[in-house]
Amino acid sequence: MEVGGHVELRTTFTTSTTSRTVNIRYLIVYTISAYNILLGKPALNRIRVVASTRHMKMKLPSLEGTLITIKSDQKAAKKCYENSLKTKKGVCSVTSQPQRGEGVARAEMARERRPEPAGEVLEREIGGKKFKLGKSLGQEAQDQIVEVKARHLDAFAWTSLDMPGIDPDFLCHCLTMDPKAQPVRQRQRKFNDERRLVTGRRPRNC
Questions:
Q1: How far from 14 is each of 8, 21, 67, CA to CA, in Å?
Q2: Band of the pLDDT at 204, cuts 50, 70, 90?
């Protein structure tokens, strides 16, 4: 995706009775898209927009204190969505994956992409639990972190075994499913030798 810079435009949000004009900086990209302009969260938050994708509306206050309600066109939104599905094949990723060399396993490539500490670290231990601190921290900051960890030792998850589950009264993720839908059993997939070897390994801490 080629970036062509940015431009600041006076953007007007208007209804039949009131309007509001603000300066918004847009990033210019050269790519295939079903949309001419996309408003990002920084701009929406700055002008205090409340959007509802379910109702296809967004509301924001005007400078006079009145409420501006902008409604979306159902037919135009559906057409843009259909066009976006057609153009997905032509979208290029801005990230590049390293070429897999001969004899290099995927696990090794994943370890190469894993972030590393910015500086040197030192290892500390409290109650049999080991953790690392950056050497760039001052002694006072290190002592404060150690004190907090020692005081709330049971609040940290040191391994996956420390997270057997979450109380549904605290947090619960619900899937939007049709209760009348019938389950469908997928056919068994066939893996190559490398993937079959990885899937057959026993997970750690089990």
A1: 19, 8, 10
A2: low
